[in-house]
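Researcher: Last one for today. Full complex below.
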Amino acid sequence: MSKFAILFSQSYFSKLKAKSFIITTLIFLLAILALFMWPTISSWFSSNDRPLKIEIVDRTGLNAGLLMKGNSKIKYSLFSGSLAQSDQAVKDKKADGVLLLTAANGVQLQAQMRTASGALTLNDQQLIGQQLQTANQLFTIQGLKLSPEQAQRILTAHISLEQKTINNESNGKSADHKTQAAFISYGIAFFIYLFVISYMSMISSEIAAEKDSRIMEIIISSSSPVAHLLSRTTAILALGFTQIFILFGSGLIMAYSFDGGKYWHLAGDAITVVSSSYLIFALLFFILACILYTLLGAVLGSLVSKVQDVGQAIMPVTMILMIGFFIAISGLGNPDTLLIKIFSYIPFTASMIMPMRIGATEMGIWEAVLSLVILAGTIVWLFQFSLKFYRGSVLTYTSGSFFKKMKQALSLSK
Amino acid sequence: MTLTVEQLTKKFDHFTAVDHLSLEAESGKIFGLIGQNGAGKTTTFRMILKLLVPTDGVIKWGGETVNTLDRDMIGYLPEERGMYPKMAVEDQIIFFGRLRGKNKRDLKKEADYWIERFGLSDKRRALTETLSKGNQQKVQLIVSMIHQPSLLILDEPFSGLDPVNAELLKKAILELKERGATIIFSSHRMDHVEELCDHLCLLQKGKSLFSGAIHELKSQFGKINLTLRGPFMEAQLAKMPGVLSVSCQNDTFRLLLSNEQDAKTIFNEVTKNGFIERFSLDYLSLEDIFKRKVGDGNV
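Model: Here's the assembly. Have a good evening.
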């Protein structure tokens, strides 16, 4: 076994068997499980729910009450008695509410909801509002004395805006398509954020701990600084990808087995929305982001002398990461801003933002490639720099400022 | 094989940590590197280990100039001890042994031997963090020699050890010497150096004050260390010819002479009234030599 392999397996398996790793993975798995089980879980609690019972007191004289169509959650029935009687029914808890319909000037429908206090949730109110809206449209159409066919045509009339770009052969993306891609990209950005936050501090702490306990000197004198740096970064990446693999794998299995594969098809639909080139780009950006931040974590970890200083050292990187993430959130609303364009080229945020641009805006493929090249170039540069720098930084134990440490590390590695 | 260092120099910006240092450590011999804190001992070790790149100078192994010594043949005990706190003693020893290119089976046998030898048998599966400092030190030492290195570098191996364990360590070092390893170690404890080393190098501010066999160094000064016990007065002894200084501890006087020859005159003088309890003439102790060489006297 080569020294790299020995160091790699020691680092990888010790962390894989660590309680913290097992517990976080289990928590994530439970969260995914809960997500899939949610409809079932919520049905346990709402199975006793009877639909809301609303009495309609129709004072329009035009049978507008018949236009209110209920559903599984709300049942409407026409009340034949007086308003006072209907109010009494609510007070006696025979009904949940009374909908009083009147017509001003014989054409303008007016409605009033009469309930005991706190009887309706926001959701119920919105639902009744929508149903009332539809009823109002029907009422207006009736007033225009249209034939049922004419009325039906008005109600079902719908137009979709097809996008056609005329300077190349492929069609542009539709708004729906863009919205979905923006959401998927946001998911990717969130995933990168989560991954980097947890794994970057892990590698920084590991290296700082080895430095703090002075194991470093023995390790790099028995193997080499390069072997150590490489083994630590690859082990952390492997650990991260192992966790992702476990979570994704179980997610897919759950999607396949729950609710007769309903979610499985949903996932399939999501993938068909985005193109395969988008998927490849997103994956590349994700992997490169992981490498970039792991390497950065290793360098920062090698600079501090004590484990408790790690949080402070990686703080600026966490800030950059948060900026990237918030810009990605802003892109959900409008992915075509200048801000997003700029940050999609900055290597530290590109991987969170560029996928959104690829999926949700119209841009040349060269822009994505350029951003990817900048990111890859940064990684190569950072890697070369850290190789040179690492030998010195792992032997530096000064307590001075960040730049003082950098300076000393560089002079030691000469 | 012999490790030779010629004109080794390390400069950090404007500070010279090691200044044209030359030394030669033979196989089957123990070489001591002595100096105050900051004299450049650890920097020298780090250059030999290739953790630092020398500014100037060459390192030879078996007479041949090498850029990097084969890492698998070096054993290194750093000044600051370091081990994985959550790893069991035996696993720790085997992990670092594998990192020096040995296979698990051989290491297991060797580990058993040394664990037994250092009286750690009941701590075999204990996590390192639960061990006492002395026991951790023993594990660290086993780690540094588990792969039977041909070159063993020990940076302050005795610090933090009680006398019993220091004795165990000394015996282990001598055993490795018997096996033919080249051993270099640094220490503040001159008694250990005196007892173990065949050759030594005195370092001050990166410069070598002396490098060679220990008896050569001692004979440079001659036998000027005289110990007396008898019915004398301190003032009376101080007036004798060639006496540089007198110190009295309990009933024993220590005289420092300017010349070995003066001892005879003093002998005749102090025995003129007959029997005295003690008269012994010795070389200066290494500690005294070191204080004299370094000058300011704080070791």
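Chain B has a mean pLDDT of 87. The longest strand of chain B covers residues 15-25.
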